[in-house]
Amino acid sequence: MSQNWNQLALVGLISGAISAGAVQLLDHPEKDVIFKEASTASFAKLTSAGASAGVPGDFTYAADVSMPAVVHITSTMKARGGDARQMQIPEEFREFFGDRAPQGPQKRQASGSGVIISADGYIVTNNHVVEGADELEVVLNDKHTYKAKVIGTDPSTDLAVIQIPAKNLPALTFGNSDAARVGEWVVAVGNPFNLESTVTTGIVSAKGRGLGIIGQKQRGNFEGPAPKIDSPLESFIQTDAVVNPGNSGGALVNLKGELIGINTAIASPTGSFAGYAFAVPSNLVKKVAGDLVKYGNVQRGYLGIVLDELDSKKADEYGVKETNGVYVKSFSPNSAAKEAGLKAGDVILKVDGLNVNTVPQLQEQIGRKQPGESVILTLGRGGATKDVTVKLKNRDGGSQLLQRDNAEMLLGDLGVQLSDLTPREKALLKANGVEGGAKVGMLEAGKLSRAGVQEGFIITKLNNKPIHSVQEFKKGIEGKKGARVQIEGIYSDAPADNFTFGFNV
Fold this sequence. Notes:
Blueprint: E1 8-10, E2 36-37, H1 40-47, H2 60-66, E3 70-78, H3 94-97, E4 107-116, E5 122-126, H4 127-130, E6 135-139, E7 145-147, E8 149-154, E9 159-163, E10 173-174, E11 185-190, E12 198-209, E13 222-223, E14 236-239, E15 251-253, E16 259-267, E17 276-281, H5 282-295, E18 305-309, H6 312-318, E19 326-331, H7 336-340, E20 347-351, E21 354-355, H8 359-367, E22 374-381, E23 384-391, H9 407-414, E24 416-420, H10 423-429, E25 438-443, H11 447-451, E26 457-462, E27 465-466, H12 470-477, E28 484-491, E29 494-504
Parallel strand pairs: 2-10
Antiparallel strand pairs: 1-16, 3-4, 3-6, 4-5, 5-9, 6-7, 8-9, 11-12, 11-15, 12-14, 13-18, 14-17, 15-16, 16-17, 18-19, 19-20, 20-21, 20-22, 22-23, 24-25, 25-26, 26-27, 26-28, 28-29
């Protein structure tokens, strides 16, 4: 199969097709979610009862353990009518909706999957399953139905955590995705095509796969706090287990019934399975889900470097001896790595003793850490190796945890960079009554791009209050995490046309 990643589609794409974003995020105090961890002793006890878990070709134990913890999620979205430019439908969604957005007060329903990760009702799924939904309904394996609240979302990993009002639920045990081996048998559990509790099998085909499918645009191999948008973090487990639309957010488990990934994407020119599927590794899922429950946002550490992958050709080009590892090209402002002593031309070989041969592998390892935590990087420099300890920073360039209501954090969640209008732009737009505004620059995975906003959009009002600058917009959204807001604005090439977008911050 040709490795054409342009043919990749998010599994269950229909779940994210309309993203006005009305599901209320739960306002909650800091708390920890209690995960079930893998236990060799308990596994041995269970298997001694006669189950043949771990035997190649026998998947019954993994299915028995995982099916009760995988749920069916239905997202209900109210279609908002409007100009085609206002409600842009991404190319990969159009097979479901045609070329134009639905008009009028219609409702659309879409389905996906989720995995129970704690007995008190926390469920992890994909962000694209829940984003834009006005209502979420969860059906358990035993057919009980609940309304769900969104606890938090992380577009940069396409993960989300929701919660249902239930207790004593069968939570799935987290396995160690680092220990998953290429060629190992795996089981995918989900609800493709609304077919509940479907089990398919395959093997791990590859690990650390970066595909460039999360977010509207990729900025290259950047690993730093500037620009202040969480860069997409992709380090997928690739499998040939059959996964189809509706499997989004479902479980990828090993033969011990341990969660090693959340099924997220498929390689397909048609939107249906055509050979390979991709899952977010469980070690990353555990970190992201834990942060969303405790803080309401992901506390992600950064090195602050621009990277490149190595092969023999690039090694010759850069004049380094290593053909494995990740090459350090340059640094972002306030770079944690530069402050720790890294130099342009270094080759990062290991993170905390784990080999990293690709940018996604390195980003995954760093992405599991919080700002203020330290990592040990093993470097190749001048033919010798050296260990350097780096204290990671947040995306603002500081070392402290970011508050969920911080304006910069909220802008990152929206997936946007903003700038003030230039004097020339103000002069050109003055005839239309525009005295200022906040202009949309780079867009990444986030609520604004999902709502249909395009680069160049000028925000002129927030909740019916005029906006003249980026600072005014930041002040307006400060403390609004989880609240519904409305923005109005124009495009400079069509200043007479006003557009309105509504979503939850």
